[in-house]
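Quick start: what a row looks like.
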Amino acid sequence: MVDAICASGIMVGVDAPVAARERELPDLMIRYQHGDREGVEELIRRLSPLLLRFFLASSALRQEAEDLLQECWIRIHRARHTYHPPQPVLPWIFAIARHTKVDGYRKIHRRRVREVLTADPPETISTAANAAEGQGPDLTALLQELPDSQREVLFMLKVAGMTLEETARASSSTVGAIKQKAHRAYTTLRGLIEKGRAK
């Protein structure tokens, strides 16, 4: 699976209908802005799994990721008037998600500095066991080796299905910088895979 990421630049598991959904999201967002309850519920239903995966990509703890998801929806609700149709919704949403994540991890870090934490049991024993048994590299572990900014770019491009321009807008960056981060991420993943095969 990881070879497919590096060789073709396409992450396995990308939601195929992302582009189709993106065409419907502005209408749902407009309904949300006008207080249409069904529009709000449908937008939350469609985007929450994607946002949760975004937060899980940077957090080992599911509870922290779920807390960030809740905070993100609060921020989206407060900022809903700043969305301007017919602009794409995903870059607007992921810009809010990025800021939520940064602020959330600052809080988490401050809390951890003051607390004495005990070791948590691993949450993905079966994934680690599969990798140990030679069934392929553990993609989650490999992605954790990447810097957060590169992991974010891969997520937006390959999981959320956003374009380079949309990813640049969501991350307050340039298309060139996004291309460079993606290239570096692929290069790092290739190196990690080759290192794992050499063992």
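That is the whole record. The chain has one domain: 2-118+135-198. Confidence is low (pLDDT under 50) at residues 1-16, 117-133.
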